[in-house]
Amino acid sequence: MASPVPTQGNLNIRDLSKKFGDFLAVDKVNLKIEKGEFLTLLGPSGSGKTTLLMMIAGFLDITAGDIDLNGASIANIPAEKRNFGMVFQGYALFPHMTVRENIGYALSVRKRPASEIKARVDEMLDLVQLQDFTDRKPGQLSGGQQQRVALARALSFAPPVLLLDEPLGALDKKLRVEVQDQLKDIHDRIGTTFIYVTHDQEEALSMSDRIVIMRDGRTEQVGTPLELYEKPESRFVASFLGKSNFLEQPDGLYALRPEKIDICAAGTGAGPARLTGTVRSITYFGSMLRVMVDIAGGTEVEVDVDSWRINTPLSKGQKVDLTWSDAASVKLARG
Amino acid sequence: MKTLGRYISPGWFLVAPFLLLVAAFYLGPILNILWLSFTDPVPGVGNYRELYESDALVRIIWTTVRVCIVTTVFSVLLGYVIAYAMVHAHENKRNLMLGFVLVSFWISILVRTFSWLMLLGRNGLVNNAFETIGIISEPIAFMRNELGVLIGMVHYMVPYAVLPLLVNMQTLDMRVMNASRNLGASGTQTFWRIYLPLTTPGLVASTLLVFILSLGFYVTPAVLGGGKVLMVAEYIYVQLLVTLQWGTAAMLAALMLFGVLGLLYVMSRFMKLSTVFGGTAS
């Protein structure tokens, strides 16, 4: 489809802030989003991720700072002129319209000819595999189908950027994993820039090219999933993305992932133990065991072991040695 | 009791007193009116034949329908604007506005009607003020005509128009309007294509409510119309208490009752009435 707007956009967010009264919801955020990137804004509720997304979409005024799309500021362009696709939390489908009318709405308000609208809607229906549901109303669709209608509607006018506000929040766990794959697949096929808001770290890790961890309105750390998981800069990042033990060393605080620790009965290890302790509890998760170990001196260390690697069963109260490689622990730049 | 309970759900015994009450004091009188309309003064359809034969009667019914339609249109339009303003106002202001709407419910219709006379009568506040300033030389005839009746009736009906619309608008998900804007629709497009269709159940409910209530209006037309705007309710009153033609009065009452029922039936063909009266649209 011939489109007046580029189908890929890069965004440059500069010193962006949002104040609600005295409350600083977004605090001087700087972020460059590349063309075709899948970027996730990840953070607990109240971290400012949705506020940031709403400012990008144009639903909230900017208190300070600027947003550039492909080099030109869009701060003063109203939401309806920004041409950004958006999948809303709860989908916000038009309940009185059929699936076809919902998906065709954006082109219809742009007064495109009926033949073009029909062709484009058919294309979108193929993309999200909803060809059999064109005449249903949203109320007659399942949650997963509604989610796909919302996605097709948001992509119908070939936006340069697609914003997704917790689009999988309303789906059950099993469906969510399925839809994650579909979303990623669609992103790979159409190449539009995706900005994805979630508080679910697994979603963020499995889908994103880069993740922005947000905390109290600020960007805590930005990086690929691998970078963030393997090299967290702060205690917050290490504990928000996955689980982590924290060890106080003379030269600073170290993060240590539970699955990177080897555990064995006291004195049976190959090398010297880094820590020794007593098993406090063992929880069985099928593929792995979670062992909580009390270390002399009051700290507690969590160890995740693959079940198949345990050759001598551990028991509660047993003395154990803990070892790990030097590369396993990461020194945190910030507390 | 036990054998009876096998055939009739025990719940019916609990509601039986109320059913009897309704039958005795509501259904009974209605049937009596129907009966009267066919039997008084002589048995037959003579009362109904008057509808064809009496120009006065046709004029009264036409006046009533016309006044009710105009009242409904203005009340619902005003009600829509007020409800919209309330839904989108800040919470404190919304409660204040709701307070004003409800207060006007509690003021007697007589008081409200006579205060319009004081304001807009020949020697009322408005005419006096205008004459003193010199804008007009003759008082404007606001009262004792159809305009006066309309002003009074619209004033009385606006709260009734507001409430069903308010309930409807409050249940709307505003993210849907945001979605429309995000998809490139202007405010006007969003209103016509999304907001208005989604508030249709409220519009229908408030239109029906106002129209049906207007049909039976008595005090306002009688006082503000000054005898010149004769509507059905006032005519029934005259037939009952002045000319004592109970048959004609009963016929008109029956006509209004079945007119309203017919209206509801027609509406039910177009939409589920349960969605209009408090149910949720699907």
CATH class of the largest domain in chain A: Alpha Beta
CATH topology category name of the largest domain in chain A: Rossmann fold
Chain pair with largest interface: A-B, 30 and 19 residues
Poorly predicted regions of chain B are: none
Tell me the fraction of residues in β-strands of chain B, as a range.
under 5%
Provide the residue-averaged pLDDT of chain B. Answer: 88
Radius of gyration of chain A (Å):
24 Å
Tally of individual domains of chain A: 2
Principal-axes shape call of chain A: elongated
Summarize the main sheet of chain A.
6 strands, mixed
Number of strands of chain A: 18
The number of helical segments of chain A is 8
* Total number of strands of chain B: 0
Description:
The complex is a heterodimer of chains A (335) and B (282). Chain A has 335 residues and is α+β, with helices and mostly antiparallel strands. Chain A has helices at 49-57, 99-109, 114-128, 143-155, 173-190, 201-207, 225-230, 235-240, and strands spanning 11-20, 23-33, 38-42, 64-69, 72-73, 85-87, 161-165, 193-198, 210-215, 218-223, 245-249, 252-256, 262-265, 275-284, 288-295, 300-306, 319-323, 329-331. Chain A starts with 10 loop residues before the first strand and ends with a strand. Helix content of chain A is 25%, strand content 32%. Chain B folds into 2 domains: 1-39, no CATH class; 52-276, MetI-like fold. In chain B, α5 packs across α8 (146-170). In chain B, 78% of the residues lie in helices and 0% in strands. Chain B is an all-alpha fold and 282 residues long. The longest helix of chain B is centred in the N-terminal third of the chain and has 34 residues, at 55-88.
Give the helix/strand layout.
The complex is a heterodimer of chains A (335) and B (282).
Chain A: E1 11-20, E2 23-33, E3 38-42, H1 49-57, E4 64-69, E5 72-73, E6 85-87, H2 99-109, H3 114-128, H4 143-155, E7 161-165, H5 173-190, E8 193-198, H6 201-207, E9 210-215, E10 218-223, H7 225-230, H8 235-240, E11 245-249, E12 252-256, E13 262-265, E14 275-284, E15 288-295, E16 300-306, E17 319-323, E18 329-331
Parallel strand pairs in A: 3-8, 3-9, 6-7, 7-8
Antiparallel strand pairs in A: 1-2, 1-4, 4-5, 9-10, 11-12, 12-18, 13-17, 14-15, 14-17, 15-16
Helix pairs in contact in A: 2-3, 2-4, 3-4
Chain B: H1 2-7, H2 11-39, H3 46-53, H4 55-88, H5 91-106, H6 109-120, H7 125-133, H8 146-170, H9 174-182, H10 187-198, H11 200-215, H12 219-224, H13 232-241, H14 246-270, H15 273-276
